[in-house]
Design a protein that fits this description.
single chain; mainly alpha; about 140 residues
Length: about 140
């Protein structure tokens, strides 16, 4: 039973729904071993949504070249991609408050960069807003 309990701990990342003693009280018995591979398939492997190739593509499209990573347009495009990804994640996981906080921080960073572009060069601002399809 110790090995099974350790596997459940590993695959779920936390304690199962019922502790061992409360499962006995409720008459549920122990966790069935045939459901463990299902959780392993759901959790592993994780694919990255923001690879270096995707970043290079954003920087070449919006920043002018792959090495121009600091331009405001490239940063705004990258932030917009991350914001869209986190928004989709939060639609599926409504109670993920850490992600919600990071999403709000990303929106604030993008807003600051957009404000900077409006002050420095309004044509670049209008171009990036039209290109990315932002509301403003």
């Amino acid at each position: 039973m110790g090995k099974l309990w350790g596997l459940c701990w590993f695959f779920w990342g936390a304690k199962p729904l019922y502790f061992q003693h409360s499962a006995r009280k409720r008459g549920l018995g122990y966790i069935r071993t045939e459901i463990i591979p299902i959780f392993a398939e759901l959790k592993f492997p994780r694919e990255m949504y923001l690879t270096t190739e995707v970043k290079k593509q954003f920087f070449s499209e919006h920043g002018g070249s792959e090495t121009n990573t600091g331009s405001s347009e490239a940063q705004i495009a990258l932030f917009s991609h991350r914001i869209n990804h986190l928004t989709e994640h939060l639609k599926r996981n409504r109670k993920d408050f850490g992600t919600q906080r990071s999403l709000i921080a990303l929106v604030g960073k993008r807003r600051k960069l957009l404000n900077y572009l409006t002050k420095t060069d309004i044509t670049r601002y209008r171009a990036i807003v039209a290109k990315l399809g932002l509301r403003k």
